[in-house]
Specification:
By secondary structure, the protein is of the alpha+beta class. Helices cover 18% and strands 18% of the residues. The chain folds into 2 domains: 72 residues; 34 residues, no CATH class. Strands 1-2-4-3 form a 4-stranded mixed β-sheet.
Length: 111
């Protein structure tokens, strides 16, 4: 069985020992992390446990990462056509229909 898990960390630096301990016990194939809250990502800590990682970080807030026991190919680290994409609210802009012209404030620039 292929196991996928997600975790809202609220700071990867603060929770690193918790995450590594959890990975040793649960051993998911893929772990999705959000709310990294920092510009540095500790990929070496996860590599030593057998996980490849890809992260997009931001100073003080947001940030996401994918850890995988399987090889990954990074295709993009941004959503094409979305400005300020790092803000979570931009992924589904306040209930409006998503179009590539949607701005970082969640308003359609065509309106």
């Amino acid at each position: 069985m292929f196991k996928v898990a997600s975790w809202n960390l609220n700071s990867v630096r603060s929770r690193l020992t918790h995450v590594t301990a959890w990975l040793k016990v649960r051993e998911p194939d893929v772990l999705l992390l959000q709310e990294l809250k920092g510009t540095e990502f500790p990929s070496e800590a996860f590599k030593s446990l057998g996980y490849e990682s890809v992260a997009v970080t931001q100073k003080a807030y947001n940030g996401v990462a994918i850890l995988s026991r399987h090889p990954m190919n990074t295709i993009a680290k941004a959503l094409v056509g979305v400005y300020g994409w790092g803000q979570c609210e931009n992924l589904i802009p306040r209930g409006e229909e998503f179009t590539p012209s949607t701005t970082s404030r969640g308003r359609n620039s065509g309106k």
